[in-house]
Design brief:
The structure is a single chain. The chain has 317 residues and is of the alpha/beta class. The chain has a single domain, classed as TIM Barrel, CATH 3.20.20. It is built from 11 helices and 10 strands. Helix 10 (252-266) links the parallel strand 9 (232-236) and strand 10. The longest helix has 26 residues, at 288-313. The chain starts with 17 loop residues before the first helix and ends with a helix.
Length: 317
């Protein structure tokens, strides 16, 4: 991705169906998003865990029963295919996919008395399964960017999981993505200031975080270290979650202010733009049509602000 180009994180406030996949892909394209994401309309963990052999799912619990391996993943591939088919009707620069990361999945799978990630030999089977799924997704030519969603890394560190295990397992998936010629990124939402050092040790090109909803994240990283490591920072510049039951669409000037602040910290040529996180939480506070209209308007404001930022910060150089 090029500086100040736009993408989304992936989830949307609609129920799973091929029609809704197409609707969410079309909304992104019509808003002017450069790299629309494959819509995630299921829980971002269950989307992958339900398609793996060796696991038993009981409500919200996922229990290890055997060595993990890819199961029937055609539904995941169908969602990618449906997205690409819709986006071929529009002028976009490429398609972004996302894979829930091994640390996050390994932290919720139960393996005896502890999470799976606490048993490195068994955890290895999960990592390799995710690598195979990543390679299959990357075989679609229009996929240009793949983000690994890893919100559980801070919690895993707190629980005592070794840094080397976290970094090596994420990098295994990164290698699968880059081995197919795609750009690898990582999305970690929430406050990340205390953990930014570990993200820098991964092989991803783009590090995306919340900046609108968690403005303290601007304290993470420095321009020098971003440039030395050859990374870009993904700036979450519109909120994706409701504040209690209140949902507000930001003005263009407000979005632009967040972008300009981030550019001042990291350099305009070192950032790309996206919402803070996925939009699925909107479905809990708004009717379907209102929720998807909010998504549309937020993306349009972000794209308009991105255009203004390019003229101010890059084309004006």
């Amino acid at each position: 991705m090029q500086p100040l180009e736009t993408t989304t994180i992936g989830s949307f406030p609609l129920e799973p169906s091929p029609e809704n996949i197409r609707i969410c892909a079309r909304i992104q394209a019509e808003a002017g998003i450069d790299y629309p994401a494959v819509p995630q309309l299921e829980d971002f963990c269950m989307l992958f865990l339900k398609r793996m052999r060796g696991l038993r799912i009981e409500g919200d619990r996922v229990i290890l029963e055997d060595l993990i391996e890819p199961g029937e993943i055609s539904e995941i591939m169908d969602q990618v295919s449906e997205t690409i088919s819709e986006l071929e009707r529009h002028d976009v620069k490429g398609v972004k996919a996302q894979i829930t990361g091994p640390v996050t999945l390994g932290s919720i799978v139960e393996a005896g008395e502890a999470p799976l990630i606490q048993y490195p030999d068994l955890y290895e089977t999960l990592v390799e399964t995710l690598c195979e799924i990543a390679r299959r997704i990357c075989d679609f030519t229009p996929i240009k960017v793949v983000f690994i969603d890893e919100p559980a890394i801070p919690g895993a560190l707190w629980a005592g999981v070794q840094e080397d295990l976290i970094i090596s397992s994420v990098n295994r998936v990164v290698e699968a993505i880059r081995g197919r010629g795609k750009v690898a990124g990582m999305h970690v939402c929430g406050r990340i200031v205390e953990y930014d050092y570990i993200f820098l040790k991964t092989g991803v090109t783009i590090l995306h975080h919340e900046y609108k909803g968690t403005p303290d994240n601007i304290q993470a990283y420095s321009r020098r270290v971003i440039e030395e490591t050859g990374k870009m920072v993904g700036i979450g510049c519109v909120k994706s979650k409701p504040e209690d039951t209140v949902v507000r669409v930001e003005d263009v000037s407000e979005v632009l202010e967040t972008i300009v602040t981030a550019a001042g910290k990291y350099g305009a040529k070192n950032i790309i733009l996206a919402p803070d996180c996925g939009f699925a939480p909107l479905k809990h506070v708004l009717p379907r049509d209102e929720a998807i209209d909010v998504v549309r308007r937020k993306l349009e404001k972000m794209v308009e602000a991105a255009g203004k930022a390019r003229k101010m910060l890059i084309e004006g150089d």
